[in-house]
Amino acid sequence: MSTPTGAIRAQLMANSPEYQHLSEEHAHYAALLDQMASRRYLNEQEQLEETRLKKLKLRLKDQMETLVHKTGTA
Q1: Which domain holds residue 13?
Q2: Residue 11 lies inside a defined structural domain of this protein
Q3: Where would I find the H helices in the chain?
């Protein structure tokens, strides 16, 4: 059974180009982080990049949740 929030996310995925774009970027960063996680060792530059990607991914998630919240209260 889907939750009201899940239904809002599905609606946004189907109808909001902004939400779709944010979701695609989020997935892209997640994939890059998965690649980095598969390595045994990250050098200093790679560690900095990993931190940067995590922050970008989190920012995108926050933006997506803001859209969900705005849509749910509209």
Answers
A1: 4-68
A2: yes
A3: 4-15, 17-37, 44-73
State how far the alpha carbon of 53 is from the alpha carbons of 2, 11, 40, 58, 69, in Å.
Answer: 30, 27, 18, 8, 24
Closest by CA position to 56, among listed 34, 30, 74, 21: 30
Residue 36 domain flag: yes
15 inside domain: yes
Reported as a single tens digit per residue, the pLDDT across 5-54 is: 999 999 999 999 999 999 999 999 999 999 999 999 999 999 999 999 99
DSSP class of residue 38 equals: T
For the record, the structure tokens of 71 come out as 């849509």
Give the confidence band of 2 by pLDDT, cuts at 50, 70, 90.
low
